[in-house]
Automatic annotation (TrEMBL), chain A:
The gene is xdhA. It comes from Flaviflagellibacter deserti. The lineage of its organism: Bacteria, Pseudomonadati, Pseudomonadota, Alphaproteobacteria, Hyphomicrobiales. One of its GO terms (molecular function) is xanthine dehydrogenase activity. This is Xanthine dehydrogenase small subunit. Pfam families: CO_deh_flav_C (PF03450), FAD_binding_5 (PF00941), Fer2 (PF00111), Fer2_2 (PF01799). It comes from the Bacteria. Keywords: FAD, Flavoprotein, Iron, Metal-binding, Oxidoreductase. PROSITE patterns: 2FE2S_FER_1, 2FE2S_FER_2, FAD_PCMH. Residues 176-349 form the FAD-binding PCMH-type domain. Its EC number is 1.17.1.4. It is an enzyme of class 1 (oxidoreductase). The keyword Iron applies.
Automatic annotation (TrEMBL), chain B:
Keywords: Oxidoreductase. Its EC number is 1.2.99.6. It comes from the Bacteria. One of its GO terms (molecular function) is carboxylate reductase activity. It is an enzyme of class 1 (oxidoreductase). This is Aldehyde oxidoreductase molybdenum-binding subunit PaoC. Residues 32-138 form the Aldehyde oxidase/xanthine dehydrogenase a/b hammerhead domain. The gene is paoC. SUPFAM superfamilies: CO dehydrogenase molybdoprotein N-domain-like, Molybdenum cofactor-binding domain. Gene3D superfamilies: Aldehyde oxidase/xanthine dehydrogenase, a/b hammerhead, Aldehyde oxidase/xanthine dehydrogenase, molybdopterin binding domain. The keyword Oxidoreductase applies. InterPro entries: Ald_Oxase/Xan_DH_a/b, Ald_Oxase/Xan_DH_a/b_sf, Ald_Oxase/xanthine_DH-like, AldOxase/xan_DH_MoCoBD1, AldOxase/xan_DH_MoCoBD2, AldOxase/xan_DH_Mopterin-bd_sf, PaoC-like.
Length: 465, 736
């Protein structure tokens, strides 16, 4: 049937009238007049629009930015807005804690914070400092200075859990059409490939955390979309003997446990991509598909020697991520193709991996420079180095000169790091960072990597304050 | 009520409700998402249409032609208003540029049209079809380049004279054995309150109602009336909940005017919200400053000469950022001068943002004090203590009503562990971090302004307060409720507070940290009248009557308060009006900020590690909300120190980073442990409440405390805010 089916605040809903690229925020505020959810930016930056969802088949609440999520993405989900947290009954523990702990001032950010905290609370996650830090990264508040919110967050855990009897509706799959516009969400790979072949004008969409900006921020109409979100074969993240396999529809959140285990530095970096709201929906494939020069996973995937498997009606082909990225927002994806898998080789005992993200503020920020290194250590010197940088050129790119010199001259090449990088990169100046800063900091990160990979054991980890 | 002699003991001093840490009475409305903000008030009037603003794509010049044909023909479009068909519009007294531009364009994203349609999507789509041909003219966009053409601005009610002097600054500075002469800069800042400006307007005949988000209701009514050329009686503004303002909503902005014009043209109610990416260039911002500070001192550390000059820019007819004003009052020194200069810039309108003047002024002055202390070989706290003054240094016959700056510093030093600090810059290293601490004074004046309220008592003993005062997140609902509860002897639950409606008595409004003291003093005045009326009704002598426990008592007779209003509600209205106590005494608030930072040795990333503010700001009416105000202000100050900066496109004349992705404000992870201490203080000179403001004090000086801590950590003195990684990295000491 041509409708989007989901559960909203406990009640089943079927929506068959709205244009497919309507954002969830516009839908709930303007169409349903559920105005508790706020619009602060319409681009995923402030979290005022946060709602919580249960994806099809999942029992875990996830916070998402409704301003860049499209209504058809809700198909099969259960969604709770701030109105559905306590209804007319007593306040939910997080609402109570925020009200009593002065975690709200002007209150405009508050429903977003409530929903971020609601998801954590309902999942029974611990509210240790690290989790709170992670949870709040995607919610901006200009009034409170955050401390009262953090305290409220801790206070809420002490209070009992509230039964919210929700379940996702059913397996998500839609073929939603309205006025010639459509949003197709196939449930397996052959169907996806067929849909791509039949609709050459359509765009692939993963979590829509990039594409959704066009609908939210730019208010563009996206007439033809094919979603990967429900493709069964593409959702898994697997630990195989020699590789970590990330499905083409796997979100950052899906992959984090395995990344944390096998490539802690990569995991730590992914924890700093956007916010929980972004990581609940955003995919690795989308990050590759966008091919932004500051896409955070790209230098890491390149340095780790990851490859992508591209599927289409013509069959499938595999290539290195490094070769897949062709230029500024340009990839080797051919019409009718989809990234079906990303495969990351596991590190050998002699290999170390380090990654650094430098940004003006700690979270929710576009990188100024991103550096990732895979180093094979021989007898006190590197025998193989792959160094990839973001923010230094029109795309994520390897520093070939640096790699060669490090292997040929050993660590003494560090003295020339800046010059060697200059041979590979001519970074831009913008308001985030000058060209000079980028050059110096990139060289310093090479030195930091040296300290880290040669210091036995204790890595100099990114600090969480 | 006239307040012209210092307050004596009054019912507020009972402190049964006032002064207690009290939960915000509007907290549950906010955490459940039921507090209604302007744009979502679907219930106030039927049949609302949507307006979408078209903003100018040039910074300066004129519109050669504007073609609305295609837009008009687009589906759902109800009306399009431009300067051509808007009718005669004046400019509001508080606006520098017109809210609807054309044919002349004064700044980038100045509104030049509003397209009204059935749905938001239709309005927006049609707005994209408006075709405009511009004739751009050359503008001036760079303060540094325009500085030499700057002139002394005209003085206004808030500014004081552009030039001030006492003694012989030039002579004393030249003769001083220890001198500092340094230039500091602060960039343009954006308020970026979380709620974008939004309004719904509806006409009923010639009467106009605007549901909006505005800090100063009476100013707004006046300016809407003036702009549209209609009588003030015909305008009603209603703004019960405001998603933050910070000065950005002191004035009527284009959303309100466009909604009113759109509603008139479409013949039905219209709502307009400014999209986030249009807000920063369409509305106001805190202007950038260039500041030169000269301090001369004797070797013993006594300041003999202090001079502060400041330059800022604004559109023609605009105002200066008064960054030198605090320097007239903060430290002793017989020879002194300040000079304020204003250049014409064609950037969007500069105007007030949280602690206008002092916020950027203290960012500079308090680095200068740190530099001077170092030159003198003095501890920065000792240096400030040495130069403390209990009188207005320009007019020694005027004492400060209260001044506990040194106490704030000393108590803060003890709490923060200042004595453990290593004064030698760049000498503390912890792993990958340089570590340092810094201090700065906080200072902000306390302003007195008339404020009125109405109080009603009904037969159930409920006290209702009505005033056009606003709550922009500051906690006004609660402190006004506490004031009425204290005065009438009822629990807080028995008080209903209604704010933000222009049909209520005119209050001080929310701005300049004057809201709390003045608006509660206005409620105090009205309650005094209500007490008299109640006493009379119940046959008590109002001098003797005690209002407590929801009863009125004198001798051994006690009557329930509700009894007085059993047959008929009792209504009292009054205002607090001030005499010349603020002329006889200087009224200011003081504080000290302490900050510890870590600076990454390889990347120059700065991490705040600890922040402490100690404040002396009169009676603290609600320690809970006051603390939040200060913590929020410290956070904004930290943002100004480390990241906030509107980047100017110097060729095209607009702010490039005009959204929340580009204009970074602190996120949770940027902000470390923060603490606030309020010193015991009551200031009987300020009002019967004996309170002063705190909301802006908290931001004044924080930036410098961060800068000073970074200097202590690294030995790198950055005088150009924000202190970004690239300004630090190239100067960092070499490390192994
Ligand atoms: C607030 C905010 C913060 C952000 N922070 C970061 C950050 O810190 N670091 C960072 O790197 N990025 C960040 N992003 C960008 C974005 O979240 C990532 O790029 C994310 O990986 C995109 O994934 P997606 O699934 O949402 O992509 P989508 O928006 O769905 O798609 C993006 C592109 O990829 C294509 N695509 C999607 N799936 C496939 C597939 N399977 N095969 C081929 N092509 C495909 C799409 O056609 C589209 O062109 C942020 C975005 C926002 C809004
Ligand atoms: S509205 Fe700001 S993140 Fe959605
Ligand atoms: S309370 Fe105002 S933005 Fe958070």
């Amino acid at each position: 049937m041509n409708a989007i089916r989901f559960r909203l605040n406990g009640a089943r809903l079927e929506e068959g009238l709205i244009p497919p690229s309507t954002t969830v925020l516009d839908y709930i505020r303007d169409h349903l007049h559920l105005t508790g959810t706020k619009e602060g930016c319409a681009e995923g930056d402030c979290g005022a629009c946060t709602v919580a969802i249960l994806k099809p088949g999942s029992t875990r609440w996830e916070a998402v930015n409704s301003c860049i999520m499209l209504v058809p993405q809700l198909d099969g989900c259960a969604i709770r807005t701030v109105e559905g947290v306590s209804g007319r009954g007593p306040l939910h523990p997080v609402q109570k804690a925020l009200a009593e702990g002065d975690g709200t001032q002007c209150g405009f950010c508050t429903p977003g914070f409530v929903m971020s905290l609601f998801a954590v609370h309902q999942n029974g996650e611990p509210t240790d400092t690290e989790t709170i830090h992670d949870v709040l990264a995607g919610n901006l508040c200009r009034c409170t200075g955050y401390r009262p919110i953090v305290d409220a967050c801790k206070a809420a855990t002490a209070q009992s859990w509230v039964e919210i009897g929700d379940s996702a509706v059913e397996k998500g799959r839609t073929n939603y059409r309205r006025d010639g516009h459509y949003f197709i969400a196939p449930s397996d790979l052959p169907a996806l490939i067929a849909a791509l072949a039949e609709n050459p004008g359509a765009r692939l969409v993963g979590g829509a955390t990039d594409l959704g900006l066009l609908a939210g921020h730019e208010r563009q109409v996206l007439p033809a979309l094919i979603s990967t979100a429900h493709v069964a074969e593409m959702k898994a993240v697997e630990d195989t003997p020699h590789q970590i396999v990330i499905g083409g529809a796997a979100t950052f959140a899906d992959a984090l446990p395995l990344l944390d285990e096998h490539f802690p530095a990569f995991g730590e970096l992914v924890h700093r991509i956007g916010s929980r709201q972004i990581r609940s929906l955003g995919t690795f494939s989308g990050n590759l598909g966008t091919a932004s020069p500051v896409g955070d996973t790209l230098p890491c995937l390149i340095a780790l020697g990851a490859e992508v498997e591209l599927a289409s009606q013509a069959g499938s082909r595999t290539m290195k991520v490094e070769d897949f990225i062709l230029g500024y927002r340009k990839t080797d994806l051919k019409p009718g193709e989809v990234i079906a898998q990303i495969r990351i080789p596991k590190l050998r005992d002699t290999e170390s991996f380090a990654a650094y993200k430098i940004s003006k503020r700690y979270d929710q920020d576009i990188s100024i420079v991103l550096a990732a290194f895979r180093v094979t250590l021989g007898d006190r010197r590197p025998t193989d180095v792959v160094a990839a940088f973001g923010g230094m050129a029109d795309r994520a790119k390897r520093a070939r000169m640096l790699e060669t010199e490090l292997v040929e001259k050993g660590w003494t090449a560090l003295d020339d790091a800046e010059d060697l990088l200059a041979a590979d990169f001519t970074p831009l100046s913008d308001h985030r960072g000058s060209e000079k800063y980028r050059r110096i900091v990139a060289a310093n990160l090479v030195r930091r990597m040296h300290l880290e990979v040669t210091a036995s054991g204790v890595p100099l980890r990114l600090e969480v304050l | 009520m006239k307040f012209d002699t210092p307050a004596t003991t009054n019912p507020i001093d009972q402190l049964k409700v006032i002064g207690k840490p009290t939960d915000r009475i509007d907290g549950p409305l906010k955490t459940t998402g039921t507090a209604p903000y302007a744009y979502e008030r679907h219930d106030v009037v039927q049949n609302q249409a949507y307006g979408y603003m078209v903003g100018s794509a040039i910074a300066k010049g004129r519109i050669a032609s504007i073609d609305v044909k295609a837009a008009k023909a687009a589906p759902g479009v109800l009306a399009i208003v431009t300067a051509d068909n808007a009718g005669k519009l004046a400019k509001g007294s508080f606006n520098t540029a017109k809210l609807l531009g054309g044919p002349d364009i004064e700044h980038y994203h100045q509104a030049i049209a509003v397209v009204v349609a059935e749905t938001f999507e239709q309005a927006r789509t049609a707005a994209n079809l408006v075709r405009i041909d511009y004739v751009p003219t050359k503008g001036v966009f760079e303060l540094a380049a325009a500085k030499d053409s700057a002139k002394a601005p005209e003085a206004n009610a808030f500014s004081g004279p552009p030039d001030t002097a006492a003694g012989d600054f030039a002579g004393a500075f030249a003769a001083a054995p220890v001198q500092l002469d340094a230039v500091y800069t602060t960039p343009d800042h954006a308020h970026v309150m979380m709620e974008p400006h939004a309004s719904i307007a509806a006409w009923n005949g010639d009467k106009l109602t605007i549901w909006t988000s505005n800090q100063m209701i009476a100013w707004g009514v006046g300016d809407v009336a003036k702009t549209l050329g209609i009588p003030v009686e015909n305008v009603r503004l209603d703004s019960p909940f405001i998603g933050g303002g910070f000065g950005g909503k002191l004035f009527v902005r284009s959303d309100a005017l466009l909604a009113a014009l759109g509603a008139r043209a479409a013949g039905r109610p219209v709502k307009v919200a400014l999209p986030r990416p249009l807000m920063i260039n369409n509305t106001t911002h805190r202007p950038a400053t260039i500041q030169r500070i000269r301090i001369g001192a004797a070797r013993d550390g006594k300041i003999t000469a202090i001079g502060h000059e400041t330059w800022s820019g604004d559109l023609p007819g605009g105002g200066a950022e008064l960054a030198a004003n605090q320097t007239r009052l903060l430290y002793a020194g017989a020879n002194r001068m300040t000079a304020t200069r204003l250049a014409v810039l064609d950037l969007p309108e500069g105007n007030a943002m949280r602690a206008p003047g002092e916020a950027p002024g203290m960012m500079a002055l308090e680095i200068a004090m740190d530099e001077m202390a170092e030159k003198l070989g003095l501890d920065p706290i000792e240096f400030r203590a040495l130069n403390d003054t209990q009188v207005d240094p320009e007019h020694p016959e005027r004492p400060f009503s209260q001044r506990q700056l040194v106490e704030c510093m000393r108590i803060g030093a003890e709490r923060f562990g200042w004595s453990k600090r290593n004064p030698k810059p760049g000498s503390v290293r912890e792993g990958r971090w340089f570590v340092g601490t810094g201090v700065a004074a906080a200072f902000r004046n306390n302003l007195l302004t008339k404020s009125a309220a109405r109080v009603r008592l009904d037969g159930r003993g409920t006290v209702t307060v009505e005033t056009d005062m606003t709550d922009i997140g500051t906690g006004t609902y609660t402190i006004i409720g506490q004031t009425a509860a204290e005065m009438m002897g009822v629990p807080l639950e028995k008080v209903v507070v209604r704010l933000g409606d222009s049909s209520f008595p005119v209050s001080a409004g929310s701005g300049g940290q004057w809201g709390a003291n003045n608006s509660t003093a206005g409620v105090y005045a009205a309650c005094v009248k209500l007490r008299e009326a109640v006493a009379q009704k119940l046959g008590f002598n109002s001098e003797e009557a005690v209002f407590a426990d929801a009863s009125v008592r004198a001798g051994n007779r006690s009557v329930p308060l509700a009894e007085a209003a059993r047959d008929k509600e009792i209504i009292a209205e009054d205002a607090i009006e001030y005499g010349d106590l603020d002329k006889k005494y200087q009224q200011s608030t003081f504080g000290a900020h302490f900050v510890e930072v870590g600076v990454d040795v390889a990347t120059a990333e700065v991490r705040l590690r600890r922040m402490l503010a100690v404040c002396a700001a009169g009676r603290i009416l609600n320690p809970k909300s006051a603390r939040s105000q200060v913590i929020g202000a410290m956070t904004m100050g930290a943002g100004a120190a480390l990241m906030e900066e509107l980047a100017v496109d110097k060729r095209l004349g607009f702010f490039v980073n005009h959204d929340l992705a580009g204009y970074e404000v602190p996120v949770h992870a940027d902000i470390p442990h923060q603490d606030v201490i309020f010193l015991e203080e009551t200031d009987p000179i300020s009002s019967p409440m004996k309170a002063k403001g705190v909301g802006e004090l908290g931001i004044c000086g924080v930036g410098a405390a961060v800068a000073n801590a970074i200097y202590n950590a690294t030995g790198v003195r950055v005088r150009d805010y924000p202190i970004t990684l690239d300004k630090l990295l190239t100067e960092l000491p070499q490390t192994g």
